[in-house]
Amino acid sequence: MAKVVTYEELKAHSTKDNLYVLIHGEVYDVTKFIDEHPGGDDVILAEAGKDATQAFEDVGHSDEARDLLPPLLVGSFEKDGALKISDTKAPGSGASVSDAVEQGSNLMYFIPLTLLGAYFAWRFYGA
């Protein structure tokens, strides 16, 4: 049976030498990883003792970063505790605004470059 981490436990593990992070209702021990974090330790420490799901998703972590989480899992966060966890969905669990933005960002580059290429082709071959 998976361990259930309480809010008090989460708050107790909020220092650089002993750090738990709550993401998507799961608690991870990131103590050994904090010095390797590309964003620096201050970014993770700022989310200590609270739900870090929104901050984690806002950054747009890569699949490789997400693959680092399972070995760090401590357990699930208590469902009816003092801290209410966010409803932010994990990637792949449904459509989200960030998915739409990521798909749209490809078009932001493709369309202008296509138009630019068409213009140069017209100037080179047509005129």
TrEMBL record:
Keywords: Electron transport, Endoplasmic reticulum, Heme, Iron, Membrane, Metal-binding, Microsome, Transmembrane, Transport. Pfam families: Cyt-b5. GO terms for cellular component: endoplasmic reticulum membrane. GO terms for molecular function: heme binding; metal ion binding. Its main location: endoplasmic reticulum. InterPro entries: Cyt_B5-like_heme/steroid-bd (IPR001199), Cyt_B5-like_heme/steroid_sf (IPR036400), Cyt_B5_heme-BS (IPR018506), Cytochrome_b5 (IPR050668). It is a single-pass membrane protein. It comes from the Eukaryota. This is Cytochrome b5-like heme/steroid binding domain-containing protein. The lineage of its organism: Eukaryota, Fungi, Dikarya, Basidiomycota, Agaricomycotina.
